[in-house]
Design brief:
Helices cover about 50% and strands about 10% of the residues. The protein is an alpha/beta fold and about 300 residues long. The two termini are about 25 Å apart.
């Protein structure tokens, strides 16, 4: 996706006159830089954000690096889960990407998009795999398609400022499910956090090192697969204690919420202040409260697990 466009190119993208675009620029509605010769150049992410917030139709979305088919379907979240299921099981990457971009452009928060469209879709795919023998490749392909779509959505978001709160996270050893942690990163970045997923299958020692060296405001654990429950609980306890000592808020999420339940042979210690979030929307609420200075040491949030499943 091109980073800078001329006013003429933007006018073509919107199907409007160049003078209209220049008026938007003069009013400060779209971020503008100028060349050494004094010519306007417009940032693509600023143009996309303008279109999203104002509802301005984009007639040539490919000029903004967006799927050419966006805006051609009904932008309703009610139909989207069924549409996404069909697109993913058919292997239609362009269609799936266009659908998710459409929903984002329709001002649907990314947390809601994941909770109400992506998560139910993968739950349905998982059920078909378990009950009706859906080939594994269909599920794996669907995950890759969604990861590509998430990257496109990330590119559409404005860059967070250098002083924005930092959030890091990923999955622990033995958990290779990449889509949930990518979703957490996407949701937090949509809220202007400097969020970075460290990836999957990470030893607890490297997570401790990340907390030690980077001192993020928030560190997340996405847990979908737990090969050894006792060991995973011990890892969670270790992370909770270390994060608390460093003043870092540790949060968890995913269907493997049992790792956050203290076993009889392990003390509770810092776990009481480490929430297990029920949804991306709960994460969104927590992130907003943190940036507004309203979060307590024990956030009043749902604690049952629910997340995107790969």
């Amino acid at each position: 996706m091109a980073e800078l466009l001329t006013t003429k190119q933007v006018a073509r993208a919107f199907g409007l006159s160049e003078s209209t675009v220049k008026r938007w620029c003069d009013r400060g509605e779209i971020r503008v830089t100028k060349t050494t010769g004094g010519h306007r150049r417009l940032e693509v992410v600023s143009i996309i954000e303008f279109a999203r917030t104002t509802g301005q139709a984009v007639v040539s979305p490919e000029m903004l690096g967006l799927p050419a088919t966006i805006g051609q379907g009904e932008r309703t979240i009610q139909r989207a889960a069924n549409q996404l299921f069909q697109l993913l099981t058919d292997g239609d990457e362009n269609g799936a990407k266009a659908l998710l971009v459409d929903l984002h452009m329709a001002k649907i928060p990314l947390a809601k998009l994941i909770d109400q469209v992506v998560s139910p879709t993968f739950a349905r795919i998982g059920q078909l795999w378990a009950q009706e023998g859906l080939p594994v490749y269909v599920e794996r392909r669907a995950c890759e398609i969604c990861l590509h779509a998430f990257r496109t959505l990330r590119e559409m978001l404005p860059q967070p400022s250098s002083d924005a709160p930092l959030a890091l996270g990923g999955t622990l050893s033995g958990d290779h499910y990449s889509l949930p942690t990518a979703g957490v990163e996407l949701v937090l970045r949509s809220l202007r956090w400097r969020a970075v997923s460290l990836g999957t299958n990470l030893p607890v020692e490297t997570m401790l090192a990340a907390i030690e060296r980077q001192t993020p405001r928030l560190f997340w654990i996405s847990a979908t697969h737990v090969p050894d429950l006792a060991q995973r609980r011990a890892d969670w306890m270790q992370l909770a204690d270390f994060a608390a000592a460093k003043g870092v808020l540790l949060v968890g999420g995913g269907k493997a919420g049992s790792i956050a339940e203290p076993a009889e042979d392990l003390p509770n210690r810092s776990v009481a202040s480490t929430p297990w979030l029920a949804s991306m929307s709960a994460l969104e609420s927590l992130a907003v409260s943190l940036t507004q200075g309203k979060a307590s040491s024990e956030p009043d949030l749902p604690v049952e697990s629910a997340s995107v499943e790969q």
